[in-house]
Design goal:
Blueprint lengths: L9 E3 L1 H18 L7 H24 L2 E3 L17 E2 L8 H9 L5 E7 H5 L3 H4 L11 E6 L3 H14 L4 E6 L4 H4 L11 H14 L4 E8 L7 H8 L6 E8 L10 H11 L4 E4 L5 H7 L5 E4 L1 H5 L3 H7 L7 H19 L3 H18 L27 H6 L4 H12 L19
Parallel strand pairs: 3-10, 4-5, 5-6, 6-7, 7-8, 8-9, 9-10
Antiparallel strand pairs: 1-2
């Protein structure tokens, strides 16, 4: 299904050609030993032995394939330093939400994670994740893949067919479905394969390639520093480090001291940090650890965080102002997904996913101590009006009531459960 022929031609570097021929010879020798039985039985044994040998070679074999076809035109250059970067957010980082963040001052936006295999299969839902809005002046897409050939072909396709300013490789996704396929954060333990993927991406892309990763897969496997030092030589333009391991998920605070060490290892390549930024005070404090900050959950809890950072002040957003934000989201959602019954319910589902984060915002006028901390679980409190009290409820039924005020009554039997646990306090 994925040919190595034109438009991408994968060849072996001369320095590894001899080793590859010797490996093929060893495979042939291995397959010729102790193979008895009928011709069909022999064929199955040979295929099985060859497949097992290929799996054993794994990372070492794939990294030897470098894609030598480079773009004739100069690669686009983006100066990411000192820019407010909205993180790629699965499900909740949709186009209507990104429009809201742009209105509040986000400088760089990135689409939701798209799977390379589904892009190559021309899956409509995956290609929809690559769309940008005209207000997104610096826009990138994030892809996820584990194979050098497939990932590189997907990048060439996106680079030539889509209106994007950069392409980000996801090396941080902790989801089992992705991790068990060798993609996402699993690539942190396969540095040679990761290097091969990045080199292929850089060679075929006309836009900058960036990398987003974690500090490691577990506390016993902290590989962020070594990867930052190695991957800076692949030709990428930016590294972003989320200050947690895959194993931690959101149970601990981000380790910005470790991010700082990654920054030193990545020099002179710019390195952004990511994790636990919910106020301009958090942003200012963490700038000493990195060249910039990527904001994820903080933007979901209060999308006006970008304006707070630029104005260097806390904003007390009233319930009526927050309802206006939700109305704009619904308007953008109906424009994007359609205004028919299907589009209305899709807009509602994505609004509910956002509300599963948004309820965690504590109004400045209610807080006893500023600023609010992202993992601070507040005691139950009454808002300054009924709508504000409804907005701070952790109950899904109350979130549904909010959507009914904006999109009408839900269908009979409607139920909602947040898609993932990133909205949890721990």
């Amino acid at each position: 299904e994925y040919s190595l022929e034109s438009p991408l031609k994968a060849v072996l570097y001369e320095r590894v050609g001899k080793r590859e021929r010797e490996r093929e010879k060893e495979r042939g020798n291995a397959c010729s030993v102790e193979i008895t039985g009928s011709p069909e039985s022999k064929r199955r044994k040979i295929d099985s032995a060859t497949q097992k040998k290929s799996e054993d070679d794994g990372d070492e074999a794939t990294v030897e394939y470098y894609f030598l076809k480079s773009r004739d035109t100069p690669k686009k250059v983006i100066d990411f330093r000192n820019k407010l970067f909205l993180a790629p957010l699965t499900t909740v980082g949709n186009l209507p939400f990104r429009r809201i963040c742009k209105e509040f001052g986000a400088d760089v936006t990135c689409g939701e994670m798209a799977l390379c295999d589904d892009i190559l299969r021309c899956k409509v839902s995956e290609w929809a994740l690559l769309r940008r809005h005209h207000t997104e002046d610096i826009f990138g897409v994030q892809i996820c893949g584990s194979h050098v050939v497939r990932t590189t072909k997907a990048v060439e396709l996106i680079s030539s067919e889509c209106d994007v300013d950069f392409i980000d490789l996801n090396v941080g996704c902790p989801i089992d479905l992705v991790f068990n396929k060798g993609a996402g954060s699993a690539l942190m333990d396969k540095s040679r394969r990761l290097e091969g993927i990045l080199r292929g991406m850089v060679n075929v892309s006309s836009v900058p390639i960036t990398l987003k990763m974690r500090i490691g897969t577990s506390e016993k496997k902290l590989s962020g520093i070594s990867l930052a030092g190695t991957m800076k030589n692949t030709g990428i333009s930016l590294i972003t480090v989320h200050g947690r391991t895959r194993q931690q998920r959101y149970t601990k605070l981000a380790d910005w001291d470790y991010i700082s060490q990654c920054r030193e290892a990545a020099q002179p390549l710019p390195l952004f940090g990511n994790g636990d930024i919910l106020s301009f005070a958090d942003y200012n404090n963490n700038l000493k650890y990195a060249d910039g900050c990527m904001i994820g959950r903080g933007a979901l809890i209060k999308p006006w965080i970008f304006k707070e950072i630029k104005d260097q002040q806390h904003m007390d957003i009233s319930s009526s102002e927050r309802m206006d934000i939700l109305r704009r989201f619904c308007t953008y959602g109906l424009e994007h997904w359609g205004s028919d019954a299907l589009g209305v319910e899709k807009t509602r589902s994505y609004l509910l996913e956002w509300l599963s984060f948004l309820y965690r915002y504590i109004p400045v006028g209610v807080l006893e101590v500023l600023p609010q901390r992202i993992n601070q679980r507040p005691p139950y409190y009454h808002g300054r009006d009924d709508v504000e009290t409804l907005m701070c409820s952790p109950n899904c039924r109350d979130w549904i009531r909010l959507t009914e005020q904006l999109l009408g009554k839900v269908p009979d039997g409607f139920n909602f459960v947040p898609k993932h646990q990133a909205n949890a306090y721990a």
